User: Fold this.
Amino acid sequence: MISGVKIPTTRNGKATFNIIVETAIELFYINGYHSTTIGNITSEAGIGAGTFYLYFANKKALYTYILMEFQHDIRKRIATKVNQVEGRFEKEKEGLKTFIKYALENPHSYNIIWESLYIDRELFINYYDTFAKRYEVGLKESVEKEEMYDVDTELVSYILMGVSNFIGLKVLLKLGDNNSNVDQIVDNVMNIIRTGIFK
Amino acid sequence: MISGVKIPTTRNGKATFNIIVETAIELFYINGYHSTTIGNITSEAGIGAGTFYLYFANKKALYTYILMEFQHDIRKRIATKVNQVEGRFEKEKEGLKTFIKYALENPHSYNIIWESLYIDRELFINYYDTFAKRYEVGLKESVEKEEMYDVDTELVSYILMGVSNFIGLKVLLKLGDNNSNVDQIVDNVMNIIRTGIFK
DNA sequence: TCATAACATGAAGACTTATTCAATAAATAT
DNA sequence: ATATTTATTGAATAAGTCTTCATGTTATGA
Assistant:
């Protein structure tokens, strides 16, 4: 499937594969990708050093596999939630809320996605480029339905991704004050986006 | 001054110090912090391996020095430009434009600042926390002058930093289309922020 | 010009890490 | 029950990197 990754066939093999992935997610989060060695992963996972290479060609293949998993997961979750509400404003609100809550429940994913810029720029570009393109589809529909002004949907998707990511950052890293009530933060942000800030 | 950094006193020493810094900025940008070795830096700079340690205790001390320089530089430039125009809207527009242009002229700085999250989380937090706090000062003044609604200035500062950073990202990495005309991009973004996107 | 402080060198040693591979075990199909 | 595929091990090797230090050079002020 993904190059450099060998999916095991047996029950045992799958268990070993999974423990490698879970351990790596944790260690990448705590110490970062570059400071995590294959030795760290195997010893923490309680397996032999050589076992790693049964399933992954190297550390980057493992990282790429994990990134793809999170990517799939987060997109699916946002899409599901957004489909449950009507109207562009409500959809954006739900999307932002889902993103922040996902990041809070799963801080590993947030870190790993951003870190891709410093592991393989292609991965990072691919991630945000495709995210933006999918975002645009929904925005264009809303423009057609006249729920939104006739804005540059590409720019708007980057603006909204920027807002989501930095509010996520603030909440995750507890930057500044008032980071506890996610629903209220999202309400405030959406009100600011709706009303604007300038008189 | 900064711990782990020895500033040279003579003309020759300063030249060597500078070539280390310039070479490192370039290599950190091209290959990233973690993939850049002291050996890479010294050989690329054309100096002996031991010379590095005359001025820097280790790679992180050098990185921190570079980060601080960029931080100082970019803030000063934005402050100068923003002071030349009147009204909050014009100030924000000028700030965004200056930020993007700085990033374009100096893509090294952008990379190095973001990478700090994966080198030393403290550095990253400190960077955005103090940036946000300074941002808030201006925003609060504008609220008092009634140029802006009575918004949560902390949230607004993170929203605007998110927008700046992701538009910067788009332009720098050439994500999507239309990344050539910075003035026009900034005009579009500011119009979106002013008018809002929702009908 | 000479003493002194600053600057510069790069080989050497200590350390860390990735990766292979021959040997072994476990699971599964026939 | 046996053959065969799959999974596992960890010592050994190879490669890379940091950092020190004994030695040498350069600049400069008295």
Q: What stands out?
A: Residues 8-10, 12-13, 16, 47-51, 54 of chain A lie near DNA strand D (CB under 10 Å from a C1'). Chain A touches chain B through 53 residues (CB under 8 Å). Chain A has two domains: 11-57, 62-195.
